[in-house]
Write a structure and sequence with these properties.
Luciferase-like_dom, globular, TIM Barrel, alpha/beta, flavoprotein
């Protein structure tokens, strides 16, 4: 099992502190989000994800840095591909890119984008991810898709990594099919679901994803759990261990946890002292 730390810092001092903690504790990845604002409370500070990652990429070593998840609602795939290449160069080949279709009404509202139907959201995710994959692979031919057409593309320089890892957030079968066609990893999270319901649904989604990968003659992809909501790894050290064991048993090979709240810090400190025990 691998472990990542996701941080949505309010200040650069906070961002730098958590980057140092993640690196020193031996986390495999350091992640942040991609929202225009906090979807529940506009008073909570939110920074631009790629900008923050550029700073982390320049001030850390060894640990992977990544975006969970780039928001299709207010990003163009051509621009995101260029940002991904730049971040890959700044980090020396440590950048990982998550992509998701965007579900928060506040992101749509602040971007001036009407809420999409589920069908349009799936279609946009498929085209968007396909475009990013094509560009990062060096295919800069013109594209005439319904949502993200472009001409005269160039992507110079190419990424440092031979294949920059693409991770797609997906729950519905249509979105899981995007993972099977284009991605190197899959990420899911509970949202508002109860833990038992989420665990059961995740096991079914893993079976569906593995079937789709076989149909596309592709190797297995990374399966990442973004733990929050009903999944509470900071309740105790035993809760962290149970989370790793319970979700590892159904096929997850990576867990990304949020930076702890002040009341959870004592548990966090106990866990990072034993992080290697759960690998």
């Amino acid at each position: 099992m691998k472990f990542g730390l996701k941080v949505n810092p309010a200040t650069w001092d906070e961002a730098a502190t958590w980057a140092g903690i993640a690196q020193d504790a031996g986390f495999d990845g350091l992640w942040t989000g991609d929202n225009m604002r906090n979807p529940r409370d506009p008073a909570i500070a939110v920074h631009d994800g790629p900008s923050l990652l550029a700073a982390w990429a320049a001030t850390t070593t060894g640990i992977a840095v990544g975006l969970l998840i780039a928001n299709v609602v207010f990003r163009r795939p051509t621009l995101l591909a260029k940002q991904a290449v730049t971040l890959d160069h700044i980090s020396g080949g440590r950048f990982q890119l998550g992509i998701g279709s965007g579900v928060w009404p506040t992101d749509h509202a602040m971007s001036g984008v009407p809420m999409w139907t589920a069908a349009e959201r799936a279609a946009r995710l498929s085209e968007f991810t396909g475009v990013v994959e094509r560009l990062l692979s060096g295919d800069v031919s013109d594209h005439d898709g319904p949502y993200y057409p472009y001409r005269d593309a160039a992507l110079t320089p190419p990424p440092v990594q031979r294949r920059l890892p693409l991770i797609v957030a997906a729950n519905a079968p249509t979105a899981l099919a995007v993972v099977a066609r284009h991605a190197d990893g899959w990420v899911t999270f509970p949202g508002a679901a109860a833990e038992e319901d989420f665990h059961r649904a995740s096991a079914e989604r893993i079976r569906t994803l593995d079937r789709l990968l076989r149909e596309h003659d592709r190797e297995p992809v990374r399966k990442i759990l973004l733990a929050y909501g009903a999944v509470t790894p900071w309740a105790s050290a035993d809760a962290f261990a149970r989370t790793a064991e319970r979700y590892g048993e159904i096929g997850f090979d990576e867990i990304v946890v949020y930076a702890p709240k002040p009341a959870e810090r004592a548990v966090f400190d106990k866990v990072i002292d034993r992080l290697g025990d759960w690998r």
